[in-house]
Design a protein that fits this description.
single chain, 281 residues, alpha/beta, Rossmann fold, SIR2/SIRT2 'Small Domain', 8-stranded mixed beta sheet, 3-stranded antiparallel beta sheet, binds zinc ion, Sirtuin
């Protein structure tokens, strides 16, 4: 369709996303595929949702690995996210604290995509929401903590690497703002880090188990805003499909699991997700 100069651009157009869709590998109109997957959602009593950075870009949080990603532009940011560098270098920690202070994630608010998943839970269809994101926006939107698995942890908390004392990130950032460049644990003087999983740290086995078990028992997986190329995100759809579940992918671009998916919806996540949970047309 030719763009009309006077028409209002859709969210996808504003974001430079080319809307496309496939059902069982056959390309169809996006609206048709959205209606089909909305039917699957309405029929399902047990959905696992997997989310990645793409669901939060409409909240102003940049993707780490994407074309405009933080690490693509700034290797220092990646260094600050590696546990051995972080623990051994006060300079790396000072950079990390300054970065946290100015991070867009600090003031980010949930968008329509996050809120649609809260609605899915309200409808009683959400088994488990597994997220790779550390921005805390699912909790902020209202998803129940007991339904949420944050496999890479959360940037909304801090912990002491020596005594495991935990506190709200805001408290630590207030200290940085007041002039402490590398605030230490108030209980033992140890190094404080955010409660995210840094490079070189292990994921929590309990989180991996929870994600795997949910994948086994669900009848539909919605993979949202993730390219599905890292563990355990890549693992969940595979386990679920092997156990007989359907897989629907919602993303702004191609993913590693598009080929085997029952539905691929390519477009604006914050536009598509609310339509999927609104019920059959
Ligand atoms: Zn401590």
């Amino acid at each position: 369709m030719a763009a009309d100069e006077t028409s209002t651009p859709t969210t996808a157009e504003r974001e430079g996303i080319l809307e496309r869709a496939w059902l069982d590998g056959t390309e169809v109109a996006l609206d048709l595929a959205v209606a089909e997957v909305a039917d699957w959602v309405a029929e399902s009593g047990s959905i696992v949702v997997l989310t990645g950075a793409g669901i939060s870009t409409d909240s102003g949080i940049p993707d780490f690995r994407g074309r405009h990603g933080v690490w693509t532009r700034d290797p220092e940011a990646e260094k600050a996210s590696t546990i051995s560098h972080y623990l051994s270098s006060p300079e790396v920690r000072k950079v990390a604290w300054r970065r946290r202070l100015t991070s867009p994630a600090r003031s980010a608010r949930p968008n329509a995509g996050h809120l649609a998943l809260v609605e899915l839970e309200r409808q009683g269809r959400l088994d488990t929401l597994v997220t790779q994101n550390t921005d805390g926006l699912h909790l902020l939107a209202g998803t129940s903590p007991e339904r949420l698995v944050e496999v890479h942890g959360s940037a909304r908390g801090v912990m002491c690497v020596d005594c495991d004392d935990r506190a709200d990130m805001r408290v630590a950032l207030d200290r940085v703002e007041a002039g402490e460049e590398d605030p230490a644990c108030r209980s033992c003087g140890g190094i404080l880090k955010s409660t995210t999983v840094l490079f070189g740290e292990s994921l929590d086995p309990a989180d991996i188990d929870a994600a795997g078990e949910a994948a086994e028992r669900c009848d539909l997986v919605l993979a949202v805003g993730t390219t599905l190329n890292v563990f355990p995100a890549a693992h969940v759809p595979r386990v679920a499909q092997r156990a007989g579940a359907r897989l629907a992918i919602v993303n702004g671009g191609p993913t590693d699991a598009d080929d085997g998916a029952d539905a691929v919806l390519r477009g604006s996540i914050s536009d598509i997700l609310p339509r999927l949970v609104a019920g059959p047309a």
